[in-house]
Amino acid sequence: MKGWMGKIRTLSLFSFLVIILSACGKDNLTALVPKGYGAEQSFNVIIISILVMIVVFVVVMAIYVYVVLKYRQRKGQEDQIPKQTEGNKTLEVVWTVIPILLLIIIAVPTIASTYDLADESEKEDSINVNVTGLQFWWNFEYPNEEIQTSQELYIPVNERIYLNMMSSDVIHSFWVPSISGKMDVSPENENTMYIEAYEEGVYWGKCTEFCGDSHSLMDFKIVAVSQEEYDQWVNAMQNTDPEYTAESATAQEGQELFENSCISCHAIDASSNHPVIGPNLADFGNRTKVAGINDFSKEEIVRWIVDPAEVKPGNGMLDAPYLQENSIGQAEAEKIADFLMELKATDEPVDSVQQFRENEANDN
Ligand code: HEC
Ligand SMILES: [Cu+2]
């Protein structure tokens, strides 16, 4: 009876793990299917380490099984004690040298990749992005192009992009498992790393340093596009209009509300002159997500405006006076959402974003 219960228990634990782990299978959020240079380097080191571990496991298990079988107690020999030996220099040397060799096999590619990924020789001639981490979102400023955006970092494929990263509050950590390694983002000093994506697509990024209430919601994306699309996007961002006037009638009312309650923290053109207080909304209509995490839909935008604390506890927008004054309800928020959805640098989102939105719609 007991053994039977044990089997059931093991089986249910297994099924539970399978269910949990199957949720880890997003192909734009996995270090096991690398789609960029840093991720590929990490993956190679993972494979080498696993191979070394498998060899150690197999050899140790083989010796163990052999010894257990060969020296087991046999019938009629219960009192017999095998010959006792002590101190074997050769053996001691062998089992000290083998682990050292194994560690060297792991260390050489690890150290080589570490230095390779810290290489800054191409920094001056590459695209540079100043990344700022804030509770609980990301700002991306392109100093040479004089534009900024937030939550979604646009890069051309097969190019090295140098990221100069700082935090404006606590320590965060930047990780896009499919594309790059991890890098801490500190308020004290600037950390640099480069990234390179091999394929067009939208890749999921996560903050991986516990940074407060909504740390686990501090998601962002890398949007990798063709060189041509990238150039068009930069050009369009440079031409976003600070004097933009909304088209539809409801959006115009929304814009008025926005100018009263929101403009102190959010810019609607992509100029890099705006201070980093809230996400830049110049290209908001082409986002993949709202606030980095929710589906891009009017409904979610309204939900965010009406009660941002419910979506992301402790986030910086909770200082907005309209929330204390209770001046924006459902009806007002819907008008503002109409206005925000009109804010687009390019008429159509880039191919990667269109593809991403289709995939998300099919998943739901
Ligand atoms: C006190 C400054 C402040 C005010 C005022 C403010 N916001 Fe925000 N807003 C923020 C911050 C900070 C965030 C980022 C929150 C996060 O994701 O952690 C944000 C995020 C957003 C986002 C998500 C942006 C994205 O890229 O996904 C939208 C949309 C938004 N705000 C709309 C508004 C609207 C509409 C108003 C006015 C009704 C407003 N905000 C007023 C600071 C502010
Ligand atoms: Cu963080």
TrEMBL record:
Location in the cell: Cell membrane; Membrane
Cofactor binding comment, as recorded: Binds a copper A center.
Reply yes or no: does the keyword Transmembrane helix apply.
Answer: yes
Query: Where in this chain does the record put each Cytochrome c domain?
Result: 249-347
- The main place the protein resides is membrane
Q: How does it sit in the membrane?
A: Multi-pass membrane protein
* Molecular function GO terms recorded: copper ion binding; cytochrome-c oxidase activity; heme binding; oxidoreductase activity
Keywords (alphabetical) are:
Copper, Electron transport, Heme, Iron, Membrane, Metal-binding, Oxidoreductase, Respiratory chain, Translocase, Transmembrane, Transmembrane helix, Transport
Q: Which residues form the Cytochrome oxidase subunit II transmembrane region profile domain?
A: 23-121
Gene Ontology cellular-component terms for this entry are: plasma membrane
Domain called Cytochrome oxidase subunit II copper A binding: residue spans: 124-236
Tell me the Gene Ontology biological-process terms attached to this UniProt entry.
ATP synthesis coupled electron transport
Which sequence ranges are marked TM in the entry? 41-69, 90-112
Write down the EC number: 7.1.1.9
User: Which domain of life does the protein's organism represent?
Assistant: Bacteria
Name any cofactors this protein relies on.
Cu cation
Query: Which reaction(s) are listed as its catalytic activity?
Result: 4 Fe(II)-[cytochrome c] + O2 + 8 H(+)(in) = 4 Fe(III)-[cytochrome c] + 2 H2O + 4 H(+)(out)
Q: PANTHER family from the entry?
A: CYTOCHROME C OXIDASE SUBUNIT 2, CYTOCHROME C OXIDASE, SUBUNIT II
State the family it belongs to: Belongs to the cytochrome c oxidase subunit 2 family.
Protein function:
Subunits I and II form the functional core of the enzyme complex. Electrons originating in cytochrome c are transferred via heme a and Cu(A) to the binuclear center formed by heme a3 and Cu(B).
Protein name, UniProt field: Cytochrome c oxidase subunit 2
Q: Which organism is it from?
A: Gracilibacillus thailandensis
Q: What is the lineage of its organism?
A: Bacteria, Bacillati, Bacillota, Bacilli, Bacillales
